[in-house]
Amino acid sequence: MTKGHRITVERSDRHVRVVHGGQVLAESDRSLVLRETGCPERYYIPREDVRLDLLTPSGAQTYCPFKGTASYWSLPDAADLVWAYPDPRPDVAEIKDHLCFYEVEVF
């Protein structure tokens, strides 16, 4: 990591739910919280707790020098709403097989 940039990944002790258009897309008590310098907290939800049947791979990809290459999924009315790092960098290996959403409810 570059000087001054920090990422931590730890198990969340909170319940996380993702709802879009009144439909629950994910719900988990097993999420990871990723904290990264200059970014909002992000909750990474195990693949098994996400309704993948409702999502369509979008083909979009982005690259983060700290996490790796992200792949995205969409809903008909929300492009690239979900992302994951299929082969994350070693410093954040825990997020493999977890998906992240832009908006989540945490309680």
Q: Within the CATH hierarchy, at the fold level, what is the topology?
A: Metal Binding Protein, Guanine Nucleotide Exchange Factor, Chain A
Number of strands: 10
Order of helices and strands, N to C?
EEEEEEEEEE
Q: How many independent structural domains?
A: 1
First-last Cα distance: 31 Å
Shape assignment = globular
CATH class: Mainly Beta
Looking at this structure, what is the CATH superfamily? Domain of unknown function (DUF427)
Q: Which architecture per CATH?
A: Beta Complex
Rg measurement, Å = 13 Å
> Please, what is the oligomeric state?
single chain
Structural class: mainly beta
**Could you list the spans in which at least 5 consecutive residues all have pLDDT below 50?**
none
Q: β content, as a range?
A: over 45%
InterPro entries: DUF427, DUF427_sf
Domain DUF427: 16-103
Protein name: DUF427 domain-containing protein
Organism: Streptomyces cahuitamycinicus
Could you describe the 3D structure shown?
By secondary structure, this protein is mostly beta strands. The chain has a single domain (7-106), classed as Domain of unknown function (DUF427) (Metal Binding Protein, Guanine Nucleotide Exchange Factor, Chain A, Beta Complex). It is built from no helices and 10 strands. It has strands spanning 7-11, 16-20, 23-28, 32-36, 42-46, 56-64, 68-75, 78-84, 98-101, 105-106. The strands form 2 sheets. Strands 1-4-5-9-8-7-6 form a 7-stranded antiparallel sheet, with no helix packed on it. A hairpin with a 5-residue loop joins strand 4 and strand 5. It is globular and about 40 Å long. The chain starts with 6 loop residues before the first strand and ends with a strand. The mean pLDDT is 95.
